[in-house]
Design goal:
six-stranded antiparallel β-sheet; Alpha-Beta Plaits; 2 domains; alpha+beta; single chain; 52% helix; 7 helices
Length: 248
Amino acid sequence: MNKLLEYLFHNPLYFLPFILLPVCIIFLGVASVKKKSMKKSKQEVKDVEEISKEKKTANSLVDVADIDGCFLYRKDDYILGYLRIGSINLELLSSEELLALTQRLSMSFEGDRNNFDYFTLPSQVNLDPNKDFIKEMRQGTDDLGKRKGLTLMMQEMTRLSTSGENFEHQHIVKLWKKIGSNIKDTEKDLRNRLSDFRERYQAVGIPCEILKDKEIIKLCNLFGNPLQAPYTGEVSKFENYPFIKETN
């Protein structure tokens, strides 16, 4: 035994297997535990991501924070307002009148060409109220000629509805302003600018209105669902049912 120890003492390389073997066993054990821990943490992160996707709402996909009154509030601290420009019959104006109207409107925008945009969108017209009105008129008259004319009008409206030709173009002016230190001051400035733009169009005989919250919602729906947008905000006969409240 003493000779064996003396031999190993003079040849230390023989000690390496006895030293490396426990070290390797410990290293493999630690690596295995760490791998299982990392796999478990990745699975937990994946589960959290899947849950967050399930809980994600449509509001997180758009840049709109709120719509209140005549303003649309964006998530990047901008407030937007909208004007709808009506139509006029240009065929009733002479060339001189049309030129004077154009020059007068253009001059009113001189020096004010920032932070507003103009665009137009096709919008489906809801013809149901018109058809109901004509139907009531037809049922309330005994004049054969009048009934025939009203019948032709109903047939034309039905044709427009079924053929997809019941569209009109809405002309919109968008104005915006960055929210400053006081949001009330920003709202006041933007409201004054909306009123100023409306007066410029009305001064030359062009109808113009500031869009309120319901109309702004319809306008937003025109981008994603133009067929349903005209019916947005309509009062449904299935809404506002009374409920019996139980009391203790």
